[in-house]
Amino acid sequence: MRLRRVRTLLLFLLVSAGFAWAQKESLLIGPGDLLHLQVYDTPEMDQRARVTDAGTIPFSFLGNVNVAGLTPGAAAEEIEHRLVTAGIMLHPQVIVHVEAFATQNASVMGQVQKPGVYEIDTPRKVVDVLAMAGGLTDLADRHITIQRHGEGQPQIEYYYSNAAASALADDPMVHPGDTVIVPRVAIVYVLGDVLKPGGYPINTNNSQITALQAIALAGYANHTAAVSKSRLVRSTPSGIKEINLPIGEMQKGKLPDVALVADDVIYVPFSFVRNLGVNSQGILASATSAMIYTH
Fold first, then answer.
1. How many domains, the chain?
2. Pick from 66, 100, 134: which residue ends a domain?
3. Which of 23, 42, 59, 288 is the most buried (most CB within 10 A)?
4. Going by C-beta distance under 8 Å and a sequence separation of 6 or more, which residues neighbour residue 2?
5. Each residue of 102-111: b (16+ CB within 10 Å) or e?
6. What digits encode the pLDDT tens for the residues 184-216?
């Protein structure tokens, strides 16, 4: 008889471990979720209960137990503690299993091909959820935010690397009720006498871009350009800052390349005659209406 009880206990613990594996410890219980509650060797306590709006469930012999915001494992520990404190059991073994989630959707917003609400009934990897939304647009920033469902829950910051191995190595889960936000990438502008003037997203794997890289994306300067008079126009809290860009010297390695920041404007002048009267204010004004190249 004793051996049978030991075997039953081991089976119960294995089932409990299986539920813990299936329901990640980051998965939190919320109002409206349907829970299956089991206590080892006490079938009369086996019950199913739906979490109230107040975040509680009614439990036999204990009354209401607050479980909202807890993982299934933490909720089981709370019930075990309450059973011991109330003097009902000495060494209870409790399983809490979420049978159905009240919120079965995840929202995907921002720079994805198909923003919207997508049905997920279990936690899904963020790359899977992004795939459901058609993937990122060419103007997507790879610093992605996952806002957890429930008041006071922390948000997750995830960098969706261009390198597949890195993207899959750290791939957080999106839970039912979460919101995935993909912001727009920062833009730099290359204007003036270049092959493809316009705005260019900073979508390199390290989210950085230099002056020479930006000019290369714009197809380089035309043969009619006054390259030696190129300049960088940067808007700062203290006003507009203008920096000379000796592109020729930078290309030869005689001077270091210049790192750009969001909304920087590189202006490569036309011939000296055509360039008369072009000032920093005019350059910035032109940047606001510049076409965004995404190829």
1. 3
2. 100
3. 59
4. none
5. bbebbbbbbb
6. 999 999 999 999 999 999 877 777 899 999 999
Judge whether 82 lies within some domain.
yes
Pairing mode, strands 34-39 and 47-50: antiparallel
Q: Do residues 176 and 202 share a domain?
A: no
| Model confidence pLDDT, tens digit, residues 230-278 | 999 998 899 899 999 999 899 999 999 999 999 999 999 987 655 545 6
> In sequence order, what E strands does the chain have?
34-39, 47-50, 56-59, 63-66, 94-100, 105-110, 116-119, 124-125, 143-147, 155-159, 173-174, 179-182, 187-192, 198-201, 231-236, 239-244, 265-268
The answer to whether residues 112 and 92 belong to one domain is no
Instruction: Note whether 159 and 223 are same-domain residues.
Output: no
Phi-psi region of 194 (alpha: psi -120 to 50; beta: other; left: phi over 0): beta
Whether the CB-CB separation of 104 and 30 falls below 8 Å is answered with no
Could you please report the per-residue DSSP string of 5-57? HHHHHHHHHHHHHHHHHHS-TTPPP-TT-EEEEEETT-GGG-EEEEPPTTSEE
Rounded distance between C-alpha atoms, residue 129 and residue 132, angstroms: 5
Domain span holding position 249: 187-288
CA distances from 205 to 39, 123, 141, 158, 236 (A): 50, 27, 10, 13, 26
CATH number of the domain within which 216 lies: 3.10.560.10
Specify whether 248 is located in the same domain as 232: yes
pTM of the model: 0.59
Q: Is residue 293 part of a domain?
A: no
Sign of the dihedral defined by the CA atoms of residues 195, 199, 205, 210, in that order: positive
